[in-house]
Design goal:
alpha/beta, single chain, 3-stranded antiparallel sheet
């Protein structure tokens, strides 16, 4: 019994696990990170877990979507095995005496990959049963796809190593005709092993048994009578094979980056994540193999070198706004004096007069019989990824249908953030096409399906196959040439999802807005360099750059916004692709690349939600500027807000903090960005009531309240079937139904 216990305790699988816990903590941290993702302990706010549990391929969650997830997972498992084999095989010299040493190593290194796969399948099955109400047949196919995909990749690599890896017999130069192993190498021998000799070898681990290909335990044979150089030659050849596979895998990923325009190559986002970690594991393994105890110093040195090299333009890819001219002899000057020159009274007066002419056309369109003044509507959709896009689209469809088109005809301005503006822009384009005679039904359910389609898979795939390296594929847009990256993939996917309805430039909307056929749209990405807002519009909007008093009394207040069209007029601002404007307004950090504009000095823009996730700042400024015209010509303003989430009033306690926690407490306020914006929102609403009068302002708010089963509503460019259904059902909540009826009454 004692002998069996010793053989079990010092079995190769358990000792490999011990080795990982002792020496491979960096690689183990990757498994821990992925475990936190699939158990929803990390990234729950952004719905990352659903990328794993409900992966989409070609718009469907089926056998093939899970097959590619499993295939990518198999790649990560083999990358893990090769990395560990590179850095750890020398601890186990008995491997060199075995046939197919790498295959046997992988079989014995099964504990962590097997445990993770089992956890993944358990979490997935639980999710399908409790949250998706899927049939057992669908669940079985999903699990089978994952397992079949993983097995396909692993068996393929095993086959390669089976035919190419050498063992000790290859170096012993067997005589022709010899078909059996020498007696001292027989697998069955082991009873008379000199284990003490093996244990005394410096740096070696005590191993008594290992698992063979048939998963049966075998006793380890002694290697004491073999020359160290002979064992080393076996490992070097095996390592060379492993490095070759990793290099080929890396080159394959780079080549796949050239195929990002083909839908069949856009694998599920979770598969892309597994591929990304495969690259990371291979890199860590290679560095550890070549530099051993110097690996941490080498990593730091590499980071410093990469940072230095990427300061050069030819190595530092910067995403651009498609349609702008980055080859103009001079970039636009961006400094305080230049901004003041854009915001001079003459420019502001010109833009205000043009806006009032548009408002007068709007007034003519919505005038009521008997001289009754109409209500002016401002639409403010919030940010929130696809959740907000679907909620905004649903609200506009139902509210506009219920009011007999009165909502959108009375709307003069749309302003908001992120996904909400994508939904609003989609509905606005459908409305315009109907006015122009197209046979499109803007109330059809297919449009909700289109706006809910995945945008994350194409982005994730491009990150792994293209953006992690130096992007090299190019394309033309608006007469200029740009580099393909995840920004390009996002815009292409958005156009595909919506039937190329956004295949326009900003200039294409100038005339419809001028004629008051459709409401104006302000897209307001935040400028990272100084915190100002960039106001992108088809019209001149210099009046949005500062409060009215700042125009009348220059120097009293700071310019806090920039008229995109005036700043970049020489860089062909009107030629900006509308999809690029939407992307700039929805550039969530790391998911989408920040956009560099052709200015001197160079400035970057990102998600509008960084400054205002509700669109209330732009709405307040606009209503302030045109207050006199509104009071004279309308019966009041209806501010229609579409919130994809509601404020949380729970207070996070600060008691029982440790010393380390208390050090970081002052930094915690940065995580309360949305809460801070709620207070700013309320302050702006209060100012509007003071400006217009309590009888002249109505706030109608449609809020998506997630159900109890969907309490963790996500902010992502990916929606699960359950999330979409939950959003559609939220419109039936009593509060939202009351607001629909209230809006109908106000617009009579």
């Amino acid at each position: 019994m004692r002998k069996k216990f010793s053989q079990a305790l010092y079995s190769f699988p358990l000792q490999l696990l011990a080795l990982h816990l002792r020496s491979n903590l960096i690689l183990l941290s990757i498994w821990l990170f992925l475990t936190l993702l699939i158990t929803n302990k990390l990234g729950s706010k952004y719905g990352i877990v659903y990328l794993f549990l409900s992966p989409e391929y070609l718009g469907r969650v089926d056998f093939w979507s899970f097959f590619f997830v499993g295939f990518a997972y198999g790649g990560m498992v083999m990358s893990w095995n090769m990395a560990v084999y590179l850095v750890s095989a020398y601890y186990f010299p008995f491997l060199a005496t075995l046939s197919r040493p790498f295959v046997k190593f992988c079989i014995n290194n099964f504990i962590i990959p097997f445990a993770f796969a089992a956890l993944f399948l358990y979490v997935h099955i639980r999710f399908e049963i409790l949250d998706e109400a899927s049939s057992w047949n669908a669940i079985f196919l999903h699990c089978l796809g994952f397992l079949f995909g993983g097995a396909s990749l692993i068996i393929g690599i095993f086959a390669y190593f089976f035919f190419t890896n050498k063992d000790i017999l290859s170096f012993l130069k067997l005589r022709d005709g010899q078909r059996t192993l020498p007696a001292d190498l027989e697998a069955g021998i082991g009873q008379n092993l000199d284990m003490e000799m093996v244990r005394r070898q410096e740096g070696k681990w005590r191993i008594e048994t290992y698992l063979s290909e048939s998963l049966r335990p075998r006793l380890v044979r002694s290697v004491a009578h073999y020359e160290a150089t002979l064992l080393e030659r076996v490992f070097r050849q095996n390592h060379s094979n492993a490095l070759l596979v990793q290099i080929i895998s890396l080159l394959s990923l780079i080549l796949l980056g050239y195929l990002i325009d083909w839908p069949y190559f856009r694998i599920p986002a979770s598969a892309s994540i597994f591929l990304a970690f495969s690259i990371l594991i291979a890199l860590i393994g290679a560095i550890s193999y070549w530099f051993h105890s110097w690996r941490f110093a080498v990593v730091i040195l590499l980071l410093l070198v990469v940072n230095h090299l990427t300061r050069n333009e030819w190595l530092n890819h910067q995403n651009r706004a498609y349609g702008l001219d980055y080859e103009f002899p001079e970039y636009a000057c961006y400094d305080f004096e230049s901004l003041q020159a854009l915001c001079i009274p003459a420019n502001v007066r010109t833009d205000k007069e043009e806006e009032i002419r548009m408002l007068n056309r709007w007034l003519e369109k919505v005038k009521k019989p008997g001289g009754k003044k109409p209500k002016l509507v401002v639409l403010c959709p919030s940010g929130g990824g696809l959740k907000s896009a679907v909620w905004t689209m649903l609200t506009l469809q139902q509210a506009d249908s219920l009011t007999g088109d009165a909502l959108f005809r009375h709307s003069a301005l749309i302003t908001g953030a992120s996904g909400g503006m994508i939904g609003a822009a989609y509905y606005r384009e459908l409305f315009l096409r109907q006015l122009q005679g197209d046979t499109v039904d803007r109330f059809a359910g297919i449009h909700l399906d289109n706006v809910a389609k995945d945008l994350l898979n194409a982005v994730s795939f491009t990150v792994v196959t293209n953006d992690l390296f130096v992007p090299w594929a190019r394309f033309k847009a608006g007469g200029y040439t740009y580099v393909k990256d995840r920004g390009y993939s996002f815009e292409r996917q958005l156009n595909e999802n919506t039937g190329t309805i956004f295949n326009k430039t900003m200039a294409d909307y100038w005339l419809p807005e001028q004629k008051a056929m459709i409401p104006k749209m302000f897209l307001t990405p935040a400028i990272i360099n100084d915190g100002r807002r960039m106001v992108i519009s088809s019209q001149g909007v210099s009046y949005m750059m500062a409060p009215p008093i700042a125009i009348r009394k220059p120097g009293y207040m700071e310019i806090d916004a920039v008229d995109f069209g005036r700043l970049l007029e020489q860089q062909d601002a009107a030629n900006l692709l509308f999809t690029s404007a939407l992307r700039m307004n929805a550039t969530f950090p790391y998911i989408l690349p920040v956009v560099y504009l052709p200015t001197q000095p160079s400035i970057e823009v990102m998600d509008a939600g960084f400054r205002d996730d509700f669109g209330i700042k732009s709405a307040t400024r606009y209503l302030h500027v045109f207050r006199d015209w509104i009071l004279e010509n309308t019966s009041g303003v209806i501010l229609v807000e579409m919130w994809a989430f509601d404020r949380v009033r729970e207070v996070t306690p600060s008691n029982n903090q440790g010393v380390v926690e208390s050090i970081f407490t002052p930094l915690g306020i940065t995580g309360q960005l949305i809460d801070l914006q709620y207070y700013e929102h309320d302050n702006s609403i209060g100012m509007l009531y003071d400006l217009l009068g309590e009888d002249m302002l109505e706030i109608v708010r449609f809020t998506y309240h997630p159900s109890a089963r969907n309490a963790e509503a996500t902010i992502s460019f990916h929606l699960t079937k359950r999330e979409k259904q939950d959003i559609l059902q939220a419109m039936q909540l009593p509060e939202n139904q009351r607001n629909l009826q209230r809006l109908k009454t106000l617009l009579r």
